[in-house]
From TrEMBL:
Species of the source: Bradyrhizobium ontarionense
Gene Ontology terms: biological process: methylation
Origin superkingdom: Bacteria
Protein name: tRNA (guanine-N(1)-)-methyltransferase
UniProt function note: Specifically methylates guanosine-37 in various tRNAs.
Lineage of the organism: Bacteria, Pseudomonadati, Pseudomonadota, Alphaproteobacteria, Hyphomicrobiales
tRNA methyltransferase TRMD/TRM10-type domain ranges (all copies): 5-225
Family stated for the protein in its record: Belongs to the RNA methyltransferase TrmD family.
Family matches, as Gene3D superfamilies: 3.40.1280.10, tRNA(m1g37)methyltransferase, domain 2 (1.10.1270.20)
Length: 239
């Protein structure tokens, strides 16, 4: 069965949204993955279809009800091997390693938070794993879910052709990308670095690596330190 994302949201009309065009959209039309957006409100039980309540203990905003969200999760009929995620700014930061793991599996259930939060009891009772896409606050989890799905879909078999593969896998995983150039040779007084037009493939590769390393050290000391630590470990051997 192809990779599948099941999204629980109060705004199902936000899907597939931008994932319906370009690379992800073509792959969706081709059946390389599928998307199911389910309306949490369909699991409301009272006559007003209420999905939220005021926070216990007081305070601003509204909280998504545990009973309604639990019913929505149960109605989705998710196989136990599929990850159950909750998009939330207090979650574990999304990394390319997590994306690769998710893309290698059957595809997640993704709950999109709204309001001031979600009743903690449903997070606990359904064992939702909270995931954040960064240290800023969105108005809801939907855009975060789109980001996570996009990052997974581009890794699925057959989605990216060899030519579109974007990154040079030989040293892209823990380094920022080296600068790229194309025609014209002269743009507003700026030329393409000579090494790139020299035809010397070994020299080109060495220049790109040096550029990628310099950029990473300057802009992302956190990634640079991790890379240094990993390389030190590899030198000592796996033990
Ligand atoms: N919902 C609101 N902000 C978010 C974030 N930064 N990551 C994931 N989900 C969110």
């Amino acid at each position: 069965a192809p990779w599948r994302a099941t999204v629980l949201t109060l705004f199902p009309e936000m899907f597939p949204g931008p994932l319906g065009v370009s690379l992800a959209g073509r792959a969706l039309s081709a059946g390389l993955w599928s998307l199911e957006a389910r309306d949490i409100r369909a699991s409301a039980t009272d006559k007003h279809r209420s999905v939220d309540g005021t926070p216990a203990g007081g305070g601003p905003g509204m909280v998504l009800r545990a009973d309604v969200l639990a019913a929505s999760i149960d109605a989705a009929g998710i196989a136990p091997e599929r990850p159950r995620l909750l998009m939330s700014p207090r979650g574990r930061p999304l990394t390319q390693a997590m994306v690769r793991n998710l893309a290698d599996g059957p595809g997640p259930l993704i709950v999109c938070g709204r309001f001031e939060g979600i009743d903690q009891r449903v997070i606990d009772a359904r064992e939702l794993v909270e995931v954040s896409i960064g240290d800023y606050v969105l108005s809801g989890g939907e855009i975060a879910a789109l980001v996570l799905i996009d990052a997974c879909v581009r890794l699925l078999p057959g989605v990216m052709g060899k030519l579109e593969s974007g990154t040079d896998e030989s040293f892209s995983d823990d380094l920022l990308e080296y600068p790229q150039y194309t025609r014209p040779q002269l743009f507003e007084g700026r030329t393409i670095p000579d090494v790139l037009t020299s035809g010397d493939h070994a020299k080109v590769a060495a220049w790109r690596r040096a550029q990628a390393e310099a950029l990473t050290e300057a802009r992302r000391p956190d990634l640079w330190a991790e890379r240094r630590a990993r390389q030190d470990g590899e030198q000592k051997g796996p033990g």
